[in-house]
Structure formats: C-alpha cells, structure tokens
Design brief:
- The protein is an all-alpha fold.
- It has three helices and no strands.
- Helix 1 packs antiparallel against helix 2.
- The protein starts with 7 loop residues before the first helix and ends with a helix.
Length: about 80
Amino acid sequence: MPAKQVLCEDQIPSALDKCIADTIIKVGSGVVTGGALSLVLFRRRLWPITLGIGIGTGMAMANCQNKLNSTDVVRRNLERK
C-alpha cells in the first residue's frame, strides 16, 4: 500500500510546533544550567544565566532552520515555478 502523501502546507504547522517545543526545552535547560553555575561557581552573578539563555536560543534556532529546510517545503515550491 503506498504511503499517504502529505501536502507541504500540512507539514509547516507540525514543524513549527516541534520547533516551539524544542525552543522551550533548550532555553529552559540553559536557564537551569546557568543558574546552577551561577550559584555554585560564580557567586550569584547574572551573566551565566544570560549566557545559558543565549546558547539555548541559538541551538533551538539552528535546529528549527534545519527542521524547516528538511521538510521539502522549499524544494517543492521551487519545482512548481
């Protein structure tokens, strides 16, 4: 039985949902790691938490770009032109 074909318009919302969930997880883990380092090593400074948020956000953005580029949305739209 052939696989059910999914339109590229139907792939975008599920990819964005996964990106949002991944962003929440990565930023949250950055806050926790930065907070732990701030309490243990850096005498309650704010910059480790900020650094953790920035690293988590950057990792999430990179994962989202890869996820959205691998869903064939761009390639299918280019084939139509």
